[in-house]
Amino acid sequence: MKGYMGKILFVDLTNGQIEEQNINDDIYENFLSGVGLGAYVLYNNIPIKADPLGPNNVLGFVSGLLTGTSSVMTGRWMAICKSPLTGGWGDANCGGTLSPAIKKCGYDGIFFKGISSKPVYLHIDDDGPKLKDASHIWGKDAVETEEILIKEHTLGNKKPAVAVIGEAAEKLSLISGICNDKGRIAARSGVGAVMGSKKLKAIVLLGNREIKCHDIAAVKALSKEYSEKVKHMNLPKIVKGNMLPLASNLMAKSNTYSSGDGMMSVYMFKKWGTIFSNTFGLQNGDNPVKNWGGSVKDYNKSYYKNINPDKIIERENKKYFCNSCVIGCGGICKIDDISFGEFSHTHKPEYETVNAFGPLLMNKDLNSIFYINELLNRAGMDSISAGNTVAFAIECYENNIINKNDTDGLELTWGNTDAIIKLVKKMIAREGIGDLLADGVKKAAKKIGKNSVRFAMNAGGQEPGMHDGRFDPMMGIHFSVDPTPGRHTIGSGTYYNYMQLWQYVSWAPKVKNKSLKEDDYIPSEETALKSVASSCYKQLVDGIGGCLFAMITGAQHFKVFDYLNAATGWNKTPDEFMEIGKRMQTLRQMFNIREGITPIDFKIHDRLAGKPPLTSGATKGKTVPIEEMMKLHWQVFGWDENTGIPKKETVKKLNLDKFVDCEFLK
Q1: 163: three-class secondary structure by DSSP
Q2: Are the C-beta atoms of 395 and 441 separated by less than 8 Å?
């Protein structure tokens, strides 16, 4: 009774063999579940230099150690594999209802290897796992497929949890993901393409196993404490979305910052969800504009008034909560009057989607963003990568690198809504120029040539999330040093200030009152300690199935360390748990080194680091010395400061040599 199930399932799609494997307690105690267990399994089961779209790659669906234990904000799951987008470690995080369903089937993870000769899906119920023919759903979009499978496999009042791929993944787009709950997507790293390459259309889970933990009363007490805090955090109705740019502008004018109580973010998430950032980050420089080359001077009030989050909430029919969530940042929006009759509803567009298809493209048509959101949800294509790729194509067109002959007649100009929609559809279908763009900016730039790489915004092959390292240099560090690069969900200076890890972790630096913003642009050991602490802590959160938004409310509120001890009975200190996070992160880095990744190649594109700097906006003139910051991060982690390769003494200290082959680290 330790929170985890103690088993995983392995499915060989080539021969149809299905095997349960027991996992020893010491694996969980050293790697937790979630991404940690996944890293352990994949490292030991994927041959070195395996083709990401070949039979030897392994695709995993992993739940969290705290999922289903009565803990709150711990209902997330992850898809993991060798990434076809970066060539290294790949993972994608997702909410919805799938995570507890994995454990209720008796497993902490479900793993697939091989390639099926025909489309199949995995069905698990109380009678056990079975592979079934998926020919009747192959070719259908993700929402339609999920609806069909739920109808076919509902037993009485009990509906299965379903994860599926759409058209983009079937066509092996390297920026495709895996969908559940009709629009929640594990979008990053090209995990959808791996699933499509295996001819695996879906997993359908309808188990009924009990999920136990060590001290259920203590877990429930922690959940009640957090839930009560959230319950009472509601913004007054008089607070409107048009006030957000004003608040951002005031913050931008300050030369200092102090640590904050991350719980204050709950006010924003409960009222708007992530879309409060639609306009909040424009004035202070957090929101990228015009393929990362513009600012609020370009996407000014005449533009951003159209993406006021209040305009999105007007269409929200009901709130959406992932499993075990008490905040409810999601929503279901009515769109039948703006989607040409194709769709009636869509999940509320996330901030990432709004910015990727709004300011990044100089598009001010909110209706088009709702429509594109549903197109991408049904196709299972990552909106972050798709938006960056469209921006790349527009800038190539603007600079005469491509023309109408290349674009199938589309006039790819900034803010051309009709052309943007048509291009997205072409990318989903791999039609015409869409085939060129369906694998992201790095591969497209390589095929186009003509120095188009200067417009291809990426880190290590993956397009960056919609938060600017020129505004928050630590975000730029994590874009560049994480084994899954370009990810905005790992850490940032803002996250660190909110989390207040220094209250619990002996080596985490305290944020000083009235810290100078300009100091964040200077490489230092203190900044490196902060970025390393953030990396380690995020690994723990991903190991428990935790939510990023709960994480940034602060360790003093979302009590990860206490939750883990209550669920497992381990009685570890915060420093000991952070060591587990360091072990997980180091193993993911070792996977990349083993696969031939040169870590410095994950450095963000020069434009993302302010080389050359912007000439307008809040980050005007800002340049981030990213290489120096990367090297200090590696040094503090115990990795070689010049190469990013984990040192043998670090690997030994973390006991990784007891669990995986480390002989290549010479």
Answers
A1: strand
A2: no
Going by pLDDT thresholds of 50, 70 and 90, the confidence category of residue 666 is low
Measured between alpha carbons, how far is 645 from 641 in angstroms, rounded to an integer?
A: 8
Domain 473-658 has CATH 1.10.599.10: yes
Residue 18 CB-density burial (10 A; 0-12 exposed, 13-18 middle, 19+ buried)? middle
The beta-strand segments (E) located in 506-578 are 515-516
**How far is residue 224's CA from residue 489's CA, in Å, rounded to a whole number?**
26
DSSP 160: P
Rg (alpha carbons) of the chain, rounded to whole number: 23
**Residue 620 dihedral angles phi and psi, to the nearest 5°:** -50, 125
Instruction: Report the distance separating Cα 377 and Cα 187, nearest Å.
Output: 10
DSSP string across 464-495: PPSS-TTT-HHHHHHHHHSSSTT-TTS--HHH
Query: Quick check: 238 and 27 in contact, CB under 8 A?
Result: no
- Predicted TM-score (pTM) above 0.90: yes
7-205 CATH choice from 3.60.9.10, 1.10.10.10, 3.40.50.880, 3.30.390.30: 3.60.9.10
Sorted by where each begins, the domain ranges of the chain are: 7-205, 272-446, 473-658
Residue in 632, 288, 650 with CA at minimum distance from that of residue 481:
632
Bridge partners for 184 per DSSP? 180
Q: How confident is the model at residue 301 (pLDDT cuts 50, 70, 90)?
A: very high
Answer whether the bond into residue 612 is a cis peptide, omega within 30°: yes
Rounded CA gap, 285 and 295, in Å?
7
CA dihedral 313, 314, 316, 322 (to 10 degrees): 10
Query: What gap in Å lies between CA 260 and CA 496, rounded to an integer?
Result: 10
Which tens digit of pLDDT belongs to each residue from 164-213? 999 999 999 999 999 999 999 999 999 999 999 999 999 999 999 999 99
Bridge partners, 19 (sequence order):
10
Structure tokens at 175: 């920026």
Query: Domain 272-446 maps to which CATH number in 1.10.569.10, 1.10.10.10, 3.30.1330.50, 1.20.1560.10?
Result: 1.10.569.10
User: To which residue do tokens 């990795």 refer?
Assistant: 639
**233-237, 277-281, 660-664: least confident range:** 660-664
